[in-house]
């Protein structure tokens, strides 16, 4: 065999905006060994939530864990507190939460798809995808008042109501967005270059996915039917037409197609929930302090997000633990790289849509 | 080839997707979560906004005569609107659809000093309040 060469990938790399470091040992372009380091952006958010912030403020703090799945983190925390304190949230608030969470999923998936196109060398498609992502950001701003850091959900309900004007505008813009997303899906599905670049690369077999506990779109692309939206009833997904999307191949192309299909399903769900929006309050007053333990599983755009919290009738929580989807997907990345060509590494890493600000917190 | 030519000709006369930002203003949409505006004449100094603010962007300092002063740092604020919801006096704190002004050296409040002053003056104020009770007993 040839010489062994060590190639560091990250923590700063053109294909990878996240501060993760892979050190590859290669032999003639083939990777034989890899080391992963994820601890570059530790901000001590969990500790701050347990020492500095009151339990009513923690929702706003955990929203800052990650910019792309801000609502997922807030939802995770808020649902856990509500389960702990046995608060019954009004149905309208649940529907509004669902609306924002699905808009967030669309925007995150479009980002992942666009980024993947860029790494494949398809800059034009990247530009198109990001232009359409801008439409979702505008919708998010319309509903919540901000483009990414929503601060929408709070303990006991949501912070803002949906006015009639906003709803009308939302419907109009969503139709436009749906057309654009259909076009994008068509391009991602049928483009010859993309197929050549992505088919059969970075394959996760269903056994591997099950054994290494893969979550989110990568797991569903390998045929594993795991989705917290389907398994854990934190929001009324089944009432608004949720579909579990799985694919068999488990390669980069399949992961991208799962995201594209989920985007369309999310948009469909938003239309359905706007049609069936219940009347009523958006918030209930909260009394008392959290006591006991609770855990919640949320389907963030990248996969299953796990929140555990413990309170003992104090304003400040005893323990808050966040387990994020990217953390669950790192073992399989490591396994996948061994035996792979070095040239396929950027596309494979990006196909997992890693979020290191979540992972290191 | 023909399609490509037609498409590129069309693109020449299409409106660009980007905004010429510094030359074209980009107004905030309605419902934008903007700056917090405080009206002193309506305030009852209950300090609920201070208690509820997650980043601690609202602080009250206590003067010697017992009156309180409101301080707000728009550069620390996360614009979540919790203070507006917590305020019992409607119209005292409002979230307007305007962004915080760009930070210049003169405009940035000396926040470290204000925080220090807020804590120390609160301690002094609490001490002064306790004194008469101690005399009685």
From TrEMBL, chain A:
Its cofactor is Ni(2+); Fe cation. Coiled coil: none annotated. One of its GO terms (molecular function) is quinone binding. Ni(2+) binds at residues 66, 69, 355. Residues 123-284, 289-360 form the NADH-quinone oxidoreductase subunit D domain. Fe cation binds at residues 69, 358. Transmembrane segments: none annotated. Mg(2+) binds at residues 46, 322. Signal peptide: none annotated. The keyword Zinc does not apply. Its EC number is 1.6.99.5. Keywords: Iron, Magnesium, Metal-binding, Nickel, Oxidoreductase. Pfam families: Complex1_49kDa (PF00346), NiFeSe_Hases (PF00374). It is an enzyme of class 1 (oxidoreductase). This is NADH dehydrogenase (Quinone). It comes from Desulfurobacterium thermolithotrophum (strain DSM 11699 / BSA).
UniProtKB/TrEMBL annotation, chain B:
Coiled coil: none annotated. InterPro entries: 4Fe4S_Fe-S-bd, 4Fe4S_Fe_S_CS, NADH_quinone_OxRdtase_chainI. PROSITE patterns: 4FE4S_FER_1 (PS00198), 4FE4S_FER_2 (PS51379). The keyword Zinc does not apply. Keywords: 4Fe-4S, Cell membrane, Iron, Iron-sulfur, Membrane, Metal-binding, NAD, Quinone, Repeat, Translocase, Ubiquinone. GO terms for molecular function: 4 iron, 4 sulfur cluster binding; metal ion binding; oxidoreductase activity, acting on NAD(P)H; quinone binding. GO terms for cellular component: membrane. Residues 34-63, 68-98 form the 4Fe-4S ferredoxin-type domain. It holds the Pfam family Fer4_7. This is NADH-ubiquinone oxidoreductase 23 kDa subunit. It comes from Desulfurobacterium thermolithotrophum (strain DSM 11699 / BSA). The lineage of its organism: Bacteria, Pseudomonadati, Aquificota, Aquificia, Desulfurobacteriales.
């Amino acid at each position: 065999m040839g010489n062994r060469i060590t190639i560091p990938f990250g923590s700063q790399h053109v294909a990878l905006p996240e501060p993760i470091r892979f050190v590859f040992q290669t032999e003639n372009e083939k990777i034989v060994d890899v080391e992963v380091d994820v601890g570059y952006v530790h901000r001590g958010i969990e500790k701050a939530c347990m020492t500095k912030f009151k339990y009513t403020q923690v929702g706003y703090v955990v929203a800052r864990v990650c910019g792309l799945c801000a609502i997922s983190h807030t939802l995770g925390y808020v649902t856990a507190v509500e389960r702990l304190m046995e608060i019954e949230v009004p149905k309208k608030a649940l529907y509004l939460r669902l609306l924002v969470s699905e808009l967030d999923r669309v925007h995150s998936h479009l980002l992942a798809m666009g980024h993947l196109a860029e790494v494949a060398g398809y800059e034009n498609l990247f530009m198109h995808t990001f232009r359409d992502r801008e439409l979702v950001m505008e919708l998010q701003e319309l509903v919540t008042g901000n483009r990414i850091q929503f601060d929408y959900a709070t303990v006991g309900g949501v912070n803002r109501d949906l006015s009639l004007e906003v709803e009308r505008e939302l419907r109009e813009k969503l139709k436009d967005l749906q057309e654009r997303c259909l076009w994008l899906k068509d391009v991602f599905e049928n483009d010859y270059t993309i197929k050549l670049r992505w088919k059969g690369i970075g394959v996760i077999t269903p056994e591997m996915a099950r054994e290494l506990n893969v979550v989110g779109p990568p797991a569903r692309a390998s045929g594993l039917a795991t989705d917290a939206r389907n398994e854990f009833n934190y929001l009324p997904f089944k009432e608004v037409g949720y579909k579990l999307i799985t694919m068999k191949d488990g390669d980069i192309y399949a992961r991208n197609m799962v995201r594209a299909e989920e985007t369309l399903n999310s948009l469909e769900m938003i239309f359905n929930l706007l049609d069936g929006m219940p009347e009523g309050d958006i918030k209930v007053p909260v009394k008392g302090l959290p006591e006991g333990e609770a855990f919640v599983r949320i389907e963030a755009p990248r996969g299953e997000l796990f929140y555990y919290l413990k309170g003992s009738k104090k304003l400040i929580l005893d323990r808050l633990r966040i387990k994020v989807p990217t953390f669950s997907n790192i073992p399989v990345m490591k396994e996948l790289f061994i035996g792979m060509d070095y040239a396929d590494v950027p596309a494979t890493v990006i196909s997992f849509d890693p979020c290191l600000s979540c992972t290191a917190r | 080839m023909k399609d490509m030519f037609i498409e590129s000709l069309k693109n020449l006369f299409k409106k660009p997707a980007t905004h010429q930002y510094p030359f074209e203003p980009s107004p905030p949409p309605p419902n934008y979560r903007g700056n917090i505006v405080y009206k002193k004449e309506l305030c009852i100094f209950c300090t609920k906004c201070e208690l509820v603010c997650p980043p601690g962007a609202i602080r009250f300092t206590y003067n010697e005569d017992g009156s309180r002063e409101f301080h707000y740092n728009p550069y620390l604020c996360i614009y979540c609107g919790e203070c507006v919801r917590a305020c019992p006096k409607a119209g005292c704190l409002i979230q307007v659809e305007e962004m915080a002004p760009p930070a210049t050296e003169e405009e940035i409040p000396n926040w470290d000093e204000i925080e220090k002053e807020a804590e120390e003056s609160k301690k002094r104020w609490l001490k002064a309040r306790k004194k008469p009770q101690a005399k009685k007993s």
